[in-house]
Amino acid sequence: MMRILSKGTTMREGINIEFKREWSDGIKKTMVAFANTDGGTIYLGVADDGEVVGLDDPEQCMVRAMQAAGNAIRPDVTLCTHAHAEDFEGKMIVMIDVQRGTSRPYYLAEKGVRPAGVYVRQGAMTAPASESAILAMIKESSNDVFDEERSTNQTLTFEEAGNVFAHAGIAFEEQHMRSLGFVDEHGIYTNTGLLFSDQCPFTVKAAVFQGDTKSVFKNRFEFEGSLLRQFRDALHFIDRYNATHSEIGSDMRRVDQRDYPDEAVREALLNVFVHRDYSMPAPALISIFDKRAEFANFGGLVPGMSEDDLAVGLSLQRNPHVAGVFYRLKWIEAYGTGVPKIVDSYADVDADPRFDIASNSFKVTLPSMISAPIKNNVERQKAAPCDLDYQQRTVLKLIEERGSVQRSDVEVALDITRSPAGELLARMQEEGLVRRMGKGKGTRYVAE
């Protein structure tokens, strides 16, 4: 009886050696395990006890092995795999050498990145990897760009993102998720996918203070979920505390003005989400005082940029895929325009927004337009806050664009359900902001 020998001793199965009488699909698991552990060799044509039984068609076995390396295993392990045949005392055997890979975890394509698809070697056994082992491999293989790294959470859902893309009329199928950077070339979720998923672990905290210190809280909130939901919710929250005041100009015409320019608020908030350093787990902070609003997040200037570059609109992206998603949704008009827009929005008052930049943090401070001295000849009178809130302004803007709206249009625009949309329109009707036309399904609302 012939046995596989190595330097005069009988070889045995172990962490780097596996014997198989013939090719079978189960060998793919062993190939995955070798790539995920310390590499190894599979001997085809050898029984479990080391007896050489030979192969009838070694050429076909080599073809199947290399096909598995390129098609059945992800990431592709072709470059880590070498199959060759040898004549062992008149009997042909095939040796499949698999090196430890550099893009772990490797997994069966049909099973995905989970214990049912990821295998490792435990002594002479091939066993499913634990979830913690899978996460450790993902972390080890990550690169230096956070939103391109593999997510440590591979159980993600995208209900919120799907709704937002659908509302924007933008396709959001598997191939689009890949082009947006939600998954990498191997089908593994990236941190971009994590950030826009319903399971996003990063949050933004907002607080409203009485006066100009942090001594007394008036309200506070923490925004969670997909970055898309966080951005919209934070924008709505700030809007509630961004009072609108009436001003009477020299021509006796009324001009409405808000504490903080809408464009400046939006750009400062976009900076919080797009340029934040997500490798630091601490939440971003929004603080609203009586005379200023602050937007602070971890992440100083991207290496290679200066404050002068920032002022003239030059931009390097810390999170290029995150910025790309906001740009695709047209929530960002153009790269590098945020700071100039914030500055320009204060052109008519003697108060400037402030940008405090440290090595690991960035803070934008917006002064109140109402409390700031004015540059033009507008005479500011004591004015009562306007009653229009964010939802009402959104509805009126929608009517301005379309001529009229139905309740369903309001539901979609504000991401609210049927009942709140109906109540909002009824209230606006009572306040003389809109007029109802038609009945039943044909009911529409126009500006009063």
UniProtKB/TrEMBL annotation:
SUPFAM superfamilies documented for this protein: Winged helix' DNA-binding domain (SSF46785)
Pfam families, alphabetized: HATPase_c_4, SLFN_AlbA_2
Gene3D superfamilies: 3.30.565.60, Schlafen, AAA domain, Winged helix-like DNA-binding domain superfamily/Winged helix DNA-binding domain
Domain Schlafen AlbA-2: 13-129
InterPro entries noted in UniProt: RecG_C_sf (IPR038475), Schlafen_AlbA_2_dom (IPR007421), Schlafen_AlbA_2_dom_sf (IPR038461), WH-like_DNA-bd_sf (IPR036388), WH_DNA-bd_sf (IPR036390)
PANTHER family reported for this sequence: GLPR-RELATED TRANSCRIPTIONAL REPRESSOR, SCHLAFEN ALBA-2 DOMAIN-CONTAINING PROTEIN
The protein, known as: AAA family ATPase
